[in-house]
Design a protein that fits this description.
The protein is an all-alpha fold. The chain has twelve helices and no strands.
Length: 324
């Protein structure tokens, strides 16, 4: 059993115990909804930010689903001309359709299963308990709170490793683009998904690094075995510098600026190779600038060199996570 699996098992155990203990404490009848909500929050919210985002989305799905399910239940109760099995089948189907329509219409970042489960349960359970729609919201709210507390205080998330993982993904995507860019002097259109993900990674790394910096400042969680904050952020800034320059060069006319783009590709390929192999964080910018200034002193090369060095010197302040 890995360390991650062991910590997750302990979290699940604590969350399940507290969830089932909450049933008699709040005077509820036997239900597994509290435990399920707590476990889902732990499963899909491995970081503080992810935990809170998932919790908000889960509760939004409950509110929408319960509203749809309750409206359908009381509406179909008036359709006495239909056999009972027809009322159940039609209301359940409409519950599925309406809940998923809301998800797709408003582009909610919620799984399909999470969206259509609440109306299903409301339609199934309300005939035996007219208060079930309200109880459903109470069950899930309590479970979400339990999941958040367990996530925050039992084996808290390692945001350093999260940031490091995002950085490695960023560098792998850049390597994927660097080859075609060097050969064709243009970004390959077929890699549109890769380029979109690179743009998204910039904000994701910044957000993860904000929480990591908070851990370092307030909880002193940086250890010798973990990644170094300054080194990781220096690599990220240079990754983004390379990516921004690739996009700028790609926007130039190949016919009018072919030599300029070729020089850009050569410089960026060399810079990227140097900084991904560097060992010391403080050498990243120095190595990159030394390599850049050693490029052939053509007018185009000088312009590109100045532009890249400008990015290297300006990006650290701009990319520093907010609030640290």
């Amino acid at each position: 059993m890995t360390k991650t699996e062991r910590s997750r098992l302990i979290k699940f155990t604590i969350a399940a115990y507290i969830s089932f203990l909450a049933i008699p404490v709040f005077g509820f009848k036997t239900t597994t909804s509290i435990a399920f909500s707590a476990i889902f929050v732990i499963t899909y919210g491995s970081t503080r930010r992810g935990c809170l985002e998932y919790s908000v989305n889960r509760m939004l799905a409950q509110v929408v689903g319960v509203a749809i399910g309750t409206a359908l239940y009381f509406t179909f109760q008036t359709f006495t001309f239909l056999p009972s099995y027809q009322r159940v089948a039609l209301s359940m189907t409409l519950g599925l359709v309406l809940s998923l329509y809301v998800k797709y219409r408003f582009h909610l970042p919620i799984a399909e299963f999470t969206m259509f489960t609440p109306p299903f349960l409301v339609l199934l359970m309300t005939p035996g308990n007219s208060y079930y729609p309200l109880l459903r919201l109470a069950y899930c709210s309590i479970g979400v709170v339990i999941g958040i507390l367990v996530n925050f205080f039992v084996y808290p998330a390692d945001h350093g490793k999260e940031t490091q993982g995002l950085l490695e993904r960023e560098e792998n995507l850049l390597r994927q683009l660097m080859g075609p860019f060097s050969q064709e002097l243009a970004l390959p259109p077929e890699e549109a998904k890769v380029m979109k993900e690179l743009d998204l990674l910039e904000s994701q790394i910044t957000l993860a690094a904000t929480e990591w910096k908070s851990d370092i400042t307030h909880h002193k969680r940086r250890t010798k075995e973990g990644p170094d904050y300054e080194r990781v952020m220096a690599r990220h800034r240079l990754n983004q510098a390379c990516w921004k320059m690739m996009k700028q060069a790609d926007g130039l006319s190949l016919q009018d600026h072919g030599a300029f783009r070729a020089q850009c590709a050569a410089i960026l390929r060399s810079v990227f190779a140097v900084h991904t192999q560097a060992e010391a964080a403080e050498n990243h910018a120095l190595d990159a600038e030394a390599l850049l200034t050693a490029q052939p002193a053509t007018q185009e090369g000088c312009l590109m060199t100045a532009a890249v060095i400008g990015y290297l010197r300006l990006l650290p302040a701009a990319a520093e996570p907010a609030g640290v």
